[in-house]
TrEMBL record:
<protein>
    <submittedName>
        <fullName>DUF4316 domain-containing protein</fullName>
    </submittedName>
</protein>
<feature type="region of interest" description="Disordered">
    <location>
        <begin position="482"/>
        <end position="506"/>
    </location>
</feature>
<dbReference type="GO" id="GO:0003697">
    <property type="term" value="F:single-stranded DNA binding"/>
</dbReference>
<dbReference type="InterPro" id="IPR025465">
    <property type="entry name" value="DUF4316"/>
</dbReference>
<feature type="compositionally biased region" description="Basic and acidic residues">
    <location>
        <begin position="804"/>
        <end position="815"/>
    </location>
</feature>
<dbReference type="InterPro" id="IPR025923">
    <property type="entry name" value="YodL-like_dom"/>
</dbReference>
<feature type="domain" description="DUF4316">
    <location>
        <begin position="726"/>
        <end position="775"/>
    </location>
</feature>
<feature type="region of interest" description="Disordered">
    <location>
        <begin position="777"/>
        <end position="815"/>
    </location>
</feature>
<feature type="region of interest" description="Disordered">
    <location>
        <begin position="223"/>
        <end position="244"/>
    </location>
</feature>
<dbReference type="Pfam" id="PF18830">
    <property type="entry name" value="LPD16"/>
</dbReference>
<dbReference type="Pfam" id="PF14195">
    <property type="entry name" value="DUF4316"/>
</dbReference>
<dbReference type="InterPro" id="IPR040568">
    <property type="entry name" value="LPD16"/>
</dbReference>
<feature type="compositionally biased region" description="Basic and acidic residues">
    <location>
        <begin position="226"/>
        <end position="243"/>
    </location>
</feature>
<dbReference type="Pfam" id="PF08401">
    <property type="entry name" value="ArdcN"/>
</dbReference>
<dbReference type="InterPro" id="IPR013610">
    <property type="entry name" value="ArdC_N"/>
</dbReference>
<dbReference type="Pfam" id="PF14191">
    <property type="entry name" value="YodL"/>
</dbReference>
<feature type="domain" description="N-terminal">
    <location>
        <begin position="7"/>
        <end position="131"/>
    </location>
</feature>
């Protein structure tokens, strides 16, 4: 066994040497540094072994450690990562006892040397297997620390941690654009160019700190002379070696903290390493590894210390906020004691929820007799630089080839991957429970999808609108291909007044002005049709035969209904042979892509849906939410008092109409608003695919023909009188439709349900007509001529020779 272990060790060490030599002759150097940053406490040998076997590894441990300490199990079929582990051999020996001062042997009374027993450790090593977290499953790992990414989060604290980790002081100066910074050995100081981005500043600072640590030859000479006056001063390294070490350490440290420094070119590495022997190359890697590891440890420790020092600032501020609000509010407000409220406020600030504290300050400032809140707001602005508002969604561009979209929802963080060229989805999923930040969700999404991008940058959320547009095109293409529309989508031609009567048969159906309705899988059928066939459970939705075949091809489960009984269709032949009604489970339909795509299509018809809400004769409600995109992120989820303090008005143009429906709740306006708040936060309708009702949303109510708009504020609702102007939006909705066909008539209300014949006669006399009403009249009259699909099915003769006996639900369970 010892011989076998020696052979394995030799085999592995030989592969390490080959790996080191090839590392500098290829473009793999940056990838090695990324691996090294994740395992900065490991030796160069083990870092190289992990890099060669699994370069995307993020956290490794042995089989038993995963099981016993982390409650995770290595998945079946996973191969271990071979590394070298120390297994020191203990041995007891006898040796002469030496005098601690003279170092001479100690003698006993007889003049003999006294021997003493001593235990020594003989260093030995063996090959062991470890496994990456991506090779395990089980209990989610605890979140150890927040990552830093993009524009460096908590930048001020991070820079202070860097200052404390630097062996010499550094300051900012004006420099030429091609110089990011320098280390002055003469003055023992570092200078960084002012005006750079946060990422570039951090990268430059770490680079120069490395120079000050490794290449401060004057300090090294003084230190050597202090311990041994005869010692030779350290020999300066050549400039190329110094730059390789500084740039490598900077890159590794930034990678450890998730700071993406962009495309780093190490093309000069091959030239620098040419002619160098293996010991020299290994020594450079060990120097880089040791320096990066030490700097990371120092930054981590100093970062924690700075944050701890800042706790007193947060506690003082939270106390001042409490006293300010309590001074103007009458009992029973505030409800909590100062001892309870201050820690809660501090935790909110640390978690990025400073907007709640801002809302409390601004609300208190409105009360008569309140002092100016300006000083508190200024201090809060400074705090939010340290603890910025937390992100809820982000998009990353990976290797300039794919977009990774991350979004927080009620179940945690979900992600979707899109191809950069086609903007179409390639993968999606959820990260582990317990993830509490976008950067951590980003790392876990990469692990789940087995991605190791060489470059990654955060990009604007605006790309989501382009992705949505492509998805809409795909949906429409699918609808046309499968004849899901009621009418052929013909491209209209410009028409004269005399040609307009023909339009009823030539134009596509205009979106009917109606409130958002539940999207049935078959628009020609209702639940009543299913009940008429004797099925009353309510968990199924009816389908015609053609629609059943379409959904069956989409892998949805189709059921056949006959005399109130239900059986599952196992192939298309059974569907073809069945002469009755079909159905699909409501839950499965609501989870289908087609259902989601149809709901997303609602958002493409803002004006028509708004016009339907304003024109409806029944009580109804509409929910408006701030449009997606970075340009409006400053007003999203902000209370009304904050908008007023910034001089920002509530603008209809900044909002999307998210949902409309009949208002079935009873009671006062406040009662109805309260019911809607509860429903759209705790039990929203299945066809509502938007975020829960939140601060900055607007709820419009139509009660007895009167429309009122209410801003969702930090505390209750605030009425916004001028948000909607019905006469303008009704006109815009119709004109946007008619403008597509050059048939604007300028009339808002064109009468009560005119017939096609009446509109044709009006056109013949040369009067302008509404294209919207013409399309509606055509559709209305066509619908009246349609025969009930259920009635048609009932009147069809039963074809006995082709009918199969479908298994009942009990038989299905036995399969």
């Amino acid at each position: 066994m010892p011989e076998k272990n020696k052979e394995r060790l030799k085999e592995i060490t030989d592969s390490i040497e080959q790996g080191i030599q090839s590392l500098f002759q290829s473009d793999r150097y940056a990838q090695f540094l990324r691996t090294m940053s994740r395992f900065h406490r490991y030796s160069v040998n083990n870092t190289m072994l992990i890099y060669m076997q699994k370069p995307d590894a993020t956290l490794v441990a042995g089989f038993n450690k995963w099981r016993d300490q982390f409650s995770r199990n290595v998945m079946r079929g996973e191969k271990g990562i071979k590394i070298i582990a120390p297994t020191p051999f203990k041995k007891k020996i006898e040796e002469e006892k030496l005098d601690p001062d003279t170092k001479a042997p100690v003698l006993d009374a007889d003049g003999k040397v006294i021997m003493e027993e001593k235990e020594i450790k003989i260093p030995m090593y063996k090959v062991v297997s470890v496994f990456d977290v991506s090779q395990t499953e089980g209990k989610p790992l605890p979140i150890l620390a927040n990552d830093l990414t993009g524009n460096v989060k908590q930048y001020e604290i991070f820079m202070e941690a860097l200052r404390r980790s630097s062996p010499v002081p550094f300051a900012f100066e004006t420099m030429e654009p091609n110089t990011d910074g320098y280390f002055s050995e003469k003055d023992q100081r570092i200078a960084i160019r002012s005006g750079m981005s946060e990422v570039q500043t951090v990268s430059a600072a770490v680079h120069e700190i490395t120079h000050a640590t490794l290449h401060n030859y004057e300090q090294a000479r003084l230190a050597a002379a202090k311990s041994d006056e005869t010692a030779e001063p350290p020999k300066p390294k050549d400039r190329h070696t110094e730059e390789v070490e500084a740039e490598s350490v900077s890159y590794a440290v930034c990678q450890y903290y998730g700071i993406q420094t962009g495309e780093n070119s190490f093309g000069y590495i091959a030239t620098w390493s040419r002619g160098k022997e293996l010991p020299e190359l290994r020594a450079s890697l060990e120097t880089i590894n040791k320096t990066a590891s030490g700097l990371i440890s120092d930054i981590d420790q100093n970062f924690r210390e700075v944050l701890k020092e800042y706790d007193s600032v947060l506690e003082q501020f939270a106390g001042d906020v409490y006293r300010y609000t309590a001074s103007v509010m009458e009992p029973p407000f505030p409800l909590n004691s100062m001892e309870e409220e201050v820690p809660a406020t501090v935790e909110d600030l640390k978690s990025g929820y400073g907007k709640d504290t801002r809302a409390a300050i601004l609300n208190a400032a409105k009360i008569e007799g309140a002092a100016s809140p300006d000083e508190l707001l200024r201090r809060l602005d400074e705090i939010e630089k340290i603890y910025p508002p937390r992100e809820t969604e982000a998009v990353y561009l990976l290797d300039n080839a794919a977009y990774l979209y991350l979004k927080e929802n009620e179940d945690g963080y979900g992600y979707t991957l899109y191809d950069k060229e086609s903007l179409r989805e390639t993968a999606s999923g959820f990260v582990d429970e317990g993830v509490s930040s976008i950067p951590t969700a980003y790392e876990q999404a990469l692990v789940v999808e087995h991605l190791v991008p060489e470059t990654s940058e955060k990009v604007s959320l605006d790309i989501l609108s382009k992705i949505a547009a492509v998805r809409e095109q795909d949906v429409q293409k699918y609808i046309r291909k499968n004849n899901l529309g009621d009418h052929e989508q013909a491209e209209p031609e410009p028409q004269t007044a005399s040609d307009q009567p023909k339009a009823a048969n030539m134009l596509p159906d205009a979106p009917e002005q109606a409130l958002d309705e539940y999207l049935m899988p078959d628009s020609d059928l209702t639940v009543a049709d299913l009940e008429a066939c004797g099925y009353l459970d309510g968990d199924l939705l009816p389908l015609s035969k053609d629609r059943a075949l379409e959904l069956f091809e989409q892998d949805l489960t189709v059921y056949m209904i006959e005399d109130g009984s239900v059986s599952m269709a196992f192939d298309s032949d059974e569907i073809q042979a069945h002469s009755g009604l079909f159905a699909v489970r409501r839950e499965e339909w609501e989870e289908s892509r087609e259902f989601s795509a149809a709901i997303e299509d609602w958002m493409k018809h803002q004006e028509q849906r708004e016009a339907a809400f304003l024109k409806t004769s029944q009580d109804a409600f509409a929910i408006y939410q701030v449009k997606d995109g970075d340009e409006l992120r400053d007003i999203r989820f902000e209370p009304l008092s904050w908008l007023e303090s910034k001089g920002v008005s509530v603008d209809h143009g900044n909002y999307d109409l998210a949902y409309t429906a009949p208002l079935t709740d009873t009671g006062s306006t406040d009662d109805r608003l309260g019911e809607l708040w509860d429903r759209f936060n705790n039990d929203h309708p299945a066809d509502y695919h938007r975020p829960s009702l939140s601060v900055s949303d607007i709820v419009a109510l139509k009660q007895n023909g009167v429309v009122s708009c209410h801003y969702v504020d930090s505390f209750g609702f605030q009425e916004i009188p001028d948000f909607l102007k019905p006469e303008n939006y009704l006109k815009n909705a119709e004109m946007s439709m008619e403008d597509d066909y050059d048939m604007i008539d300028g009339v808002i209300d064109n009468g009560k349900n005119p017939s096609v014949a009446e509109l044709e006669q009006q056109a013949k006399t040369g009067q302008p007509i509404s294209l919207l009403e013409l399309a509606e009249a055509s559709r209305r009259e066509n619908d009246e001529k349609k025969k009930s699909v259920v009635e048609q099915l009932r009147n069809q003769p039963v074809s006995r020779e082709h009918k199969k006996t479908a298994p009942d639900r009990g038989a299905e369970m036995e399969r």
